[in-house]
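Quick sanity check, Hydroxyacid dehydrogenase:
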Amino acid sequence: MSQPIIYLHEPMKEEQVEAIRKTAVDYIIVDASRDTAQINEEAIEIMLGWDKELGQRLLNSESSRLKWVQSISAGVDSYDLNRFSEKGILLSNASGIHSISISEHVLGVLLAAFRGIQTSINNQTTNIWTRENISYKQLSMQKMLIVGTGHIGQQLAAFAQGLDIQTYGINTSGHVTKGFIECYSQKNMQRIIKEMDIVVNILPLTDETYQLYDETMFKAMKPGAVFVNVGRGPSVNTNDLITALNDGQVSFAALDVFEEEPLPKESPLWNMDNVLITPHISGLTPGFKAKLLAIFTQNLTQFLKDGTLAKNQIMLQHGY
């Protein structure tokens, strides 16, 4: 049998590749960004990052030796999780890497809305000095519902509490989580959401979270609530959100992810004064490669020892 391969679809620095090579001495390390020679695809056992075309071939091959894929993102909704499960392939994500970046992003867009900063930026583009169209509110003591209490949600709660924001959480079971005044199960979300001034979506995309934010959910919100989405675009019914924004049921929305990306130029969201659009940048993180490598190396060491993963393993049946 040919020597097994670790396939690096995510470009790494030479010293990072060498660190992987020293950890996995019995493997051939293929860096897709540098190595252009033909390889034996069937010998790939581990993949860092996901090459969609190559990955699909391996998933469809009866002779593939693929055993584990390390995703570079926290969300894994783009993977064929059923096929992974059928073939017994492990999948781990990059959860935890983006926590600080996304938390800072959420607070940044909230301050832009609450302190009139977005309006001032718009006025600046036309050389207008005025306070007449600037609205402002106090961010402290607002009730924030963080929908998703994992690494990112907990980090956001910690940061938000530094501004005296009252943080509440939604998770699958309603289990108590550090940093939250109270947590509730997703099935009770409509009951509690009516009390919240700010709703922040950080959920992964699953069958249960697809189109979670629809007309019914928006109508259940406190009138004039602020909505932030840094989770997944398809969790939101865009047309229903636009209606809620036009009706004032949602007073402001900061959106970093969308049902369709890039957001189509004809989308009404572009021209709405009460919407702040960012192009899926909330997770951009300084030193990302080094942080990803730390997760991958820890998992690689464990995998080589006994075929299991040390952290961030995806429960394929749940999708997260």
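Posting the structure with no commentary besides this: The domain at 5-96+287-306 is CATH 3.40.50.720 (Rossmann fold).
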